[in-house]
Amino acid sequence: MTALLRATGLRKSYATGRAGLFRPSARFNAVDGVTLHIKPGETLGVVGESGCGKSTLSRLVLGLAQADAGEILFDGAPLPRADTDDWRRMRIRMQLVHQNAAGALDPRLPVRAQVEEALRIHKRAPERAARALSDVGLPPAMAARYPHEMSGGQLQRVVIARALALDPDLLVLDEPVSALDVSIQAQIVNLIRDLQAARGLAYLFVSHDVAVVRHVADRIAVMYLGRVVEEGPTAAFRTGALHPYTRALLDAVPVPDPGCRGGAVPRIGDPPNPAAPPPGCRFHPRCPFAVHRCRAEPPVLREFAARHHAACHRIEEIA
Amino acid sequence: MVLSVNDVTVTIDRPRRTAVHPVRGVSLSLKAGETLALVGESGCGKSMTCLALAGLLPNRAAIASGTLVLDGTDLGTLSPRDARDLRRRKMASVFQDATGGLNPVRSIGWQVAQAVRMRGGATRHAAQQEAVRLLGRVGLPDPERRAREFPHQFSGGMNQRAMIALAIAGNPKLLIADEATTALDVTLQAQILELIADLRRALGMGVLFVTHDLGLVAQHADSVAVMYAGRIVERASTDSLFANPRHPYTQGLLAALPDAMGASARLASIDGTVPPIDALPAGCAFAPRCVRASAICTSTVPDTVRGLACHHPGPRVRPAVPAMQKEYS
Amino acid sequence: MRWFAIKSLRAFVTLWLVVTFVFFVLRLSGDPTMILLPDDTDAATRSFYRALWGLDRPIWDQYLRYVAGLMQGDFGISFRNNMDAFQLVRDRVPKTALLGWTALSIALVLGIPLGILAALYRDSWIDRVVMGLAVFGFSMPNFFLGILLILIFSLQLRWLPSSGSDTWWHLIMPAFTLGTGFAAQIARYTRSSMIDVLAKPYMRTARSTGAGPARRVISHALPNAAVPVVTILGFQIGQLLGWAVVTETVFAWPGIGRLLTTAVATRDLAVVQCIMILLAITMIAANMFVDFLYGWLDPRVRVGAGARTA
């Protein structure tokens, strides 16, 4: 099957600090050579900690930020430049839901009017708003409410409804449940999965929460300081992760079972400043297996099992 | 007992409106060297409980009733100045936002040294040396140099280590860790919690560990108190709470967690939302969301019997998966 | 050092722009001989004086000569009394400096503690009284306050002299007139910046270590609250000089302000230019000092300490 979205060699850097008169400002590579693809109806989970570039990646995919290098193909065609008509047409097919639902909504309009407005902007029938709101589990009475009259979980449903009303093929979900309490988080996670089952949507699900990503994703890509260090089917992340960073990340997730105490807490030290990543393998200063080669030579993604890739020089030796 | 809290209620006065009670009748006790987790979702009153214990309540909030006994002394019998003195010698707090919790214009070393002087009355020079020692103790590399740096030069994790150093100055008997690792990356969180556990053993502190993360509770607490809408609804040892949760809310919380191994089952969610603090229902506050609620639940607040506040305790029942639209009724 | 070099370069460029601007604007504003010489002066005498003062040359030539003079410390000759303009201005500097410093000290000594007090007792009667006074002090025009003080303390009570600068008694009213407006502004800025700081999480940290209220305010809050106040202070130095002109006139204080008023009225170009340059230098120096203070107070803007080190 052909990919719905295919990104190759994406790079994006930002300036840090001020430039001098004759000295360019230091730049930091938020995303440094990321390649990924998503098939129709599939969920790709992107997981990583702060500064790993996962949010920049989601902005690049949507065309909200312009990549310095690399190529993005959506449904076989290159992503048009941002703010052109072509881009707007394509953006209908790829929608964004992010963490801050309250910030994504206009506090002065009832939520139904906001969904209708989105439809009108893209020349769709505003009558679809009611349907979209009921699809995300909001009763009709709630459609007339203003954002401040709703809870965080309900607001996130509105944002999802607004995105869905346009009938997209791809939804980019950037930390969609991170701001929510556990009991509400479960409601939204269920909703996201039900919608996918009903409509065959593809998701790019970006989160720092390994447990949630593992629950919703078909495939997972693990990012560390701008690079993908491991990528493979979700099942592989339940049984045996390959990369030392992924292992530490999985080991660090607290298991809600007092019987599993005393598991190996990864002692990998504090993360480096993302604005000044180390050379070679970016994980090497924290890696218990690092050797001289890791300090000098950045590893590339290699396939170790079916569709399961990792970027580490020493996987054969440490497995 | 390092800390025993009996039936404490916190009241917030609001101008021209009725007062609200974010903490209602909370009782807790904590032994030296023990970790008690206070767990609940946002707005349940767990942070307000901590602020009340630490004497850091905001202006309009106050402890309206109940007693606080800190290391054998009832704080209610002391003058405000003596109470502040006792708290400063016996307890310390670490909060979520470490970078914001440190003064941006003072060096890390100055801030830790201030805490040392406040708690122990050391000379300036001795306090500085002690600050460097404490910064080394919490795992800051090159503490001598780092002590001269400022919070904006540190990563979030390093700032949280500095906050812990500041907290353990003067060897407190009680450490309150209020969502102390929530803002940190998961790989760092594990290390910070291990540091706190290590200090607890070494200094014999009691740790009141406030969190929303049940995974952390399972890994780090000896006993647990679950809070909902200002009350403690269930209290038990960690082992028994996870093996045999009795309150429907606790059961719901545990069921809502994504399972690491179980593949793609639906998560069990708790319908509805937490009631706002100024519009609590009569009776049990959880009744509107509870699968077992009956008439008595909506009229009478349940008493706490053997650590459980529920009219209908019982083993876990997995509620039937509701249809999507029904999740909001 | 590099920082200082850049700052100095900028200051120099600013100064040059001021000199140029003032030079051309003053020359566009009319012929000085029309004002300085009696109305019935004949054309020949006028052109004699024009030639004497170099006003008959092309304006570019005048400008280059003037700048060349400046480089050698020559600010030109006062048309009015044929004295060295720089000498005239220099004689007045101590008086204005005395007035300015006293006013500034009054402003700081009154404004900062009152602002802190208002912030600490926010919304109480103390806050309302302090802010009421601040609004009063800020909205009261300078000359009006000066005249009011003269009416009360000189004409009615006969406690203080109304004009001149002979004794310390003479300093009191002008300094208060000039200082109250700034005290009011400083009190307001201190209050709002203090309220901001008091709500910061690090103040809770200070409280949790058991620091008492006085220590929390003085050693934890104040260094933070001072940062925005100091920034404002830089802007206010300029304002202070402006208001000094008015105050000096009201109290007949023989400072630069009064010299400027007469020099402007009589088109005494060399004197006006010299004063303008002096004011510009004062402003630039004040702002450099503020920048320096700012870096000293706030390590986040300190050179070389801005970056995260890990």
From TrEMBL, chain A:
One annotated GO molecular function: ATP binding
Subcellular location, record wording: Cell inner membrane
Protein's UniProt keywords contain Transport: yes
GO cellular component, one term: plasma membrane
Membrane topology: Peripheral membrane protein
GO biological process terms held by the UniProt record: peptide transport; transmembrane transport
Residues annotated as domain ABC transporter: 5-250
Keyword Transport part of the UniProt annotation: yes
Alphabetized InterPro entries for the sequence: AAA+_ATPase, ABC_transp_ATP-bind, ABC_transporter-like_ATP-bd, ABC_transporter-like_CS, Oligopep_ABC_C, P-loop_NTPase
Keywords, alphabetical: ATP-binding, Nucleotide-binding, Transport
Family stated for the protein in its record: Belongs to the ABC transporter superfamily.
Annotated protein name in UniProt: Peptide/nickel transport system ATP-binding protein/oligopeptide transport system ATP-binding protein
UniProtKB/TrEMBL annotation, chain B:
MF GO annotations: ATP binding; ATP hydrolysis activity
Entry membrane topology: Peripheral membrane protein
The entry's keywords: ATP-binding, Cell membrane, Membrane, Nucleotide-binding, Transport
Keyword Transport: yes
UniProt xrefs under NCBIfam families: oligo_HPY
Residue ranges of every copy of the ABC transporter domain listed in the record: 3-254
Family the UniProt entry places it in: Belongs to the ABC transporter superfamily.
One of the protein's GO biological processes: peptide transport
Subcellular location: Cell inner membrane
SUPFAM superfamilies listed in its UniProt record: P-loop containing nucleoside triphosphate hydrolases (SSF52540)
Gene3D superfamilies on file: P-loop containing nucleotide triphosphate hydrolases
GO CC annotation: plasma membrane
Naturally occurring in which organism (per UniProt): Salipiger aestuarii
Entry keyword annotation includes Magnesium: no
Main location (coarse class): membrane
Name used for this protein in its record: Peptide/nickel transport system ATP-binding protein
Pfam families associated with the record: ABC_tran, oligo_HPY
Automatic annotation (TrEMBL), chain C:
UniProt cross-references to CDD domains, sorted A to Z: TM_PBP2
Annotated InterPro entries: BPD_transp_1_N, MetI-like, MetI-like_sf
UniProt topology in membrane: Multi-pass membrane protein
Locations listed in the record: Cell membrane
Keyword Cell membrane found: yes
Protein's UniProt keywords contain NAD: no
Domain ABC transmembrane type-1: 93-290
Spans through the membrane: 12-30, 98-121, 133-155, 167-187, 225-246, 270-294
PROSITE patterns assigned to the protein according to its UniProt record, in alphabetical order: ABC_TM1
Keywords: Cell membrane, Membrane, Transmembrane, Transmembrane helix, Transport
Main location: membrane
GO molecular function: dipeptide transmembrane transporter activity
Gene Ontology cellular-component terms listed: plasma membrane
Family assignment from sequence similarity: Belongs to the binding-protein-dependent transport system permease family.
UniProt-listed PANTHER family: DIPEPTIDE TRANSPORT SYSTEM PERMEASE PROTEIN DPPB-RELATED
Name listed for the protein in its UniProt record: Peptide/nickel transport system permease protein
Organism the protein comes from: Salipiger aestuarii
